[in-house]
Amino acid sequence: MTRRMTLVSAACLLVTLALLVSVVPPCFAEPPAPDESSGEWEPKENVDEIPPPVAYSQLIVAPPPLPKTTPTISAYIKDSKGQRTSEVVGNDTWYLIVEMNWPGRLSLYEYYPKGAPSKGRWITYRWDIPKGGTWQIGPFSPQPKEPEGEHAWKMWFQAEGQIWACTVSWKYLKSKVPPIIEAFKANPDRIDSGQSATLNWTVLGATTITIDNDIGEVEESGKKVVQPTKTTVYTLLAANSAGNSKATTTVNFGPLPPPRDGQRNRTLLLLGAALAVALGVIGFLAYRQRSRRLEPMSPATQTAVSGDISTTVAPDMPATTAATMTSTKMGKMPATTASLPPGADATVIVRGRLVMADSNEIRLTEGTKAIGRADFKSIVPPDKLSYISRRHLMVSYENGDYFIEDEDSGNGTKLNGADIKGKGKYKLSDGDKIELSEVVTLTFRTG
User: I want to staple 134 with a disulfide (CB 3.0 to 4.6 A). Which of 60, 155, 383, 391 is the partner?
Assistant: First the structure.
C-alpha cells in the first residue's frame, strides 16, 4: 500500500513539472549581445522586458497616429544643462532623448569603444512604450571604469509588426588635460645589500598607469616594495586620451652615508667658526678706523686756513675715490662725503618682459630666472594652479638674447604652439607665445 502511494505521488509530481514546462516559456537572465554579422537583427520575444536602469519620463505626448502612418524613431544626447552634446567629460551626467510617433517596444544596446574588455551592455530590452511622443531617459553617469573613446547606442523600435533602428554616438573622456602626477617617490632613496625601499605614487585623471622594471600596470594611488641589487631609476608613465605624463625616482644602491645629525652638527660648527672670524675682522677694521681718525694729520695733507672755509685733499688719494673735507671753523672735526667709483650703477636693467593676458607682467633682468607655480597664485584659479609645476621653466640671458627651457615640468611647455619639453633651450623673439600646461599664456616682449 505504501509503495503504491509513493508511485502515485511521484507520478503527480512529474505531471505537475510537465505542465509548468509547457506553460512557462524559456527565459534568460540576460539577453545575449546582438549579432548583426548576418544582416538585420531583431530582439527575441522569449526574453523578459528590461526597463531603463535610470529614471525616465514622457516630455511630449504625440497625437494618436493616423492609419497607415509609418512609425518613426529619432534620438540625441543632451548634457546636464539641457544642451545637445556628443561628448561627456569626467563625472558629467547626460540624458537620452527619444522621439517616437507610435507606441511600441524599445531595445537599446551600448557598444563600447574598440579595445574595451567587453563588447557592450543592454540598457533596455523590449521596454514597453505605452504612448508615442518624446521620452527623456536619465540622468546617466559614468560607470566606475567607463571605457574612454567612441560609444554607440543602437536602438530597435518595434511597432506595427515592424522594426526600425537608429544609432546615437558619443565620446567619453576622463579629462581634457594630460594626467597629473602629484607624487612619485622612493622611501628610502638609498639602500644597502639585503634592504628594500617603497615606491609611493598618486596620479589624477589617468586611464592607464604603468611603472617599468617589471612592475607593470598600477592603480591611481598606491605603493610597491622593491629590492634592487644596483642603483635603479624607476619611471612612472600615466596616460589618458589627452596625452601622457612621466615622472622618475631613483633608488641608490650602496653603503649608506653618515647619519645626518652628525653632518648637521659639523655644518653648525663651521658656520659658527665662520661667524666668529667675520665678527673678529669687523671689530679689527672698526678699531683701526677709529685709531686713524684720532691720529694728527701730516704736514703734507694740511693747508693754511684762511677765512671760514678751507678744503684739503690728500696728495696720495686717487681723484675718483678722494673724500672732500670741509671745516667751518678753526679746530672743528672735518665732515666727509664719498663718491661712487667709476662704472658703479645702482640701477637694475630690465631688458625683457613676460606679459600675461590681464596685463600683469614678469620682468626679466640680465641673468637667469625660474618661472613656476608661485608666479601665478594671484591670477590662476586654485583648481588649475596645480597643473603648473613648482619650477616649470627657466629664462636665461646670454649675449644680448633671452632663452627659455622647460625644467622637466609635469604638463609641459609650448612655444608658439610647439611642445619644447625635454628639447633644450629655445631663443625668444619679440611677440613669442609661451603656454604653461595649457593654463597660462605669456607673451615675450623686449625692452
Answer: 60
